[in-house]
Every structure is written in C-alpha cells, then in structure tokens.
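Many introductory courses stop at the sequence. We go one step further.
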Amino acid sequence: MRRLLNMPAAMVLTLVAAACGSTSNNESADTGPLNVGVIVSLTGNYAPLGTEDKKSIELAVQQINDKGGLLGRKINLTVKDDKSQPDQSVLNFNELKSAGVVAVIGSPFSNSALATIPQVDRAKIPYLSLTPADEQVNPVHPYVFVVPATSGTYAERILEYYKAQGYTKVAVAYDTKSSYAKAGFAGMQAKAPQFGISLVAPQEFQTTTTEFSAVLNHVKTSGAQALTVWATGPPAVAFAKQYPTAKLGIPLMFTGAQASTLWLNPTGPAAEGVFVASAIGVVGDALPDGPQKQAISELATPFTSTYGYPPPQFAADGYTGVKLLAAAIQKANSVEPAKIQAALEGLTLTTPNGTYKYSSTDHSGLTAQYISINVVKDGKLQATDWAKAELAKVAGG
C-alpha cells in the first residue's frame, strides 16, 4: 500500500485496471467452454473406424451438455483428422496442446497413437486412446489411458474360449504392418501355453494383401482345429470371402476390429458362421438387466435411432472415452490435467465396454471378462451360448 501511495495516480489506475482485467479473465476461463481435443481418422484407410468414433463422441458430449455440462461448463470439441497417418496425428496433438485443451481422445489407428505418445509424455495432457495396442500401457505412460480392451486381453479371451471347446492346436494369421495385429499375435504366443494350446502355422500378411490362398493352404495342412486372424480394414473382408473356397473345415475367428457392420456388410454371406470377438456392448441384447445393460442402452438407443444401425465396436470406444474423461473431471472437481490424470488412475466406472478399474499400474482398466465371443447368424453378431453364460457373471445375471 505504501508503494501505491507513492506512485503517480495514473500508474495506480493502470495497475488496478490490470488486476481487474486479470480477475475477469480467470472467471471467464472458469465458466467458459471446457475444451477437449479429438484425433480420429476421417480420411485414409482407417476412416471407417474414425467416423464411427466421431459420431459416438459427439453423442456423448451432447448428452453431457444437455444436462448442464461438466462443473457447470459445456464441453467444446475440437476434432482433428489424422488422415490415417502417424505423423499427422503428432501434428494434430501439438496443435491441440497449443489450443489449451484439457485432454485428448486419441486415434483409433494404433500406429498413430504410438507415434503420439512421446508428445503426450512431454506435454502431460491426459490422452485416452481409442486403439488397443499393448505398447501404450506396457510400460505405463502416466498420462496415457487405453479405452478398448488391449490386444493381449482379446488374445486371452479367445484362448479361453478355445480351451472351453477342447481345442489344443490353433493357427494364427496376422498383419505385420499393424501394431494392433502384432500385439494380438504376441499375446497369443505368450498366453497359449497356460491354456494348454499350441500355435501352429503362424502366417504373416500385410495391410495391402488381397490374395490369401497361400496362407490358407499352409493352415490347411497344419492340423489346426481353429484359425484366428488379426487384421483391420480391407484384408479382413478379403480373407473372410476367400475362406469358404479353401474348405478348411475349422472355425474362423476374427477380433474386435471386425465387430461392426463395416465388416459384416461388405463380407456378406461369407460372414455366416464366422466367429468374432467383441466388446460386451456389441451384444447388449444378450445381457440380463442391470447396470451394464443400462450403460449400453444409453449409447445404443439414441445411436441406432439416429443412424439406423446399432453402434459398432468403434462407436462404443468413442462414447466410452468421453464417459471416462467426464467421470475423471467430476471426480477431480478440476480441469487441471494433473488432477484429471490422478482421478483417472483411481477411477472405477461401468460403461458400454464394461467396468473399468484404472490404477497407477493399470492404464488399460478392462479384463477379459468383458469380451464376448460371437458368431454371425443371419448377417448379425450374436453372442455364443458360452459367451452368454460368461458375460452374465459380470453383467448382473
């Protein structure tokens, strides 16, 4: 105060005005829109995944905003297209960081997410990834949280199903250019022995592969009792269409990347009888009434009404990502990134994908119990009897 009294009047007025302006800006920041960044693939090979993510993310945000937002603030989304290119995802993240977002919901393309993680580590902004590659959480990156069940978790559930069917020899084919597929194959390699299963005739292909006769011929002579394929995009459609002509006579299993009309529709009749592992939300109708089914309905009912088809795996991931972030912000009662990160690490939440239990040592949060093993019947994914019995254990039945 003594210093102010000794200052010229004009200077005193300038300081007071500046102080008032600062208070006004802080109040605006505390009550204005809550900015959240989104990086999805809207063009390129992974556009079918990213467009479904975007639809469900926008739906979840609309539902939250219609109820008053978070901490009294409406959510404002800034959506970026990584163009199915890892370097573009990195550029997107840096732009979002400069824009002052409180968190980022990240790419469904594994390679894009993995390229972005070093930036996340430096920026210390919560990043909820929409891709299941295990490398994102093993080892743990403090600000990276995975939304879909990891590839390794899918591998565990598939092997559990095979054991229940009495299979001991399983063939695997995987895309060597996809981090998701490579992690899935590695997960099966690591976990197969504990289920009494041997992997035979491992077959490699690439994202650009369109002809699978050589792969199928190798599997045919391997003595395998089932075949699992880890793929994303067009190769999974081509593989399924060529499978019947090979006449292997054994079950064909795909993973969560095919739990969608984006695979079912172009595959057509060739999909009949094929097995597909998926998140629990894809087969919500098969569940008993309870909190899990209700969480799925909150997405499925409005999504189906709006788009004319049930939400695929990718839509469940995007919607769940928003729900996890919103719950963490509410728990933290803050939009400071460090406090959101700490809240995520102690978060338990039931979502369309299952019940997450994140911790400081587990940034994947989902167990294999929340993965369903389905079969295609009449052009639709239907939970197997084995899956119904298993899912009822965690869904209230």
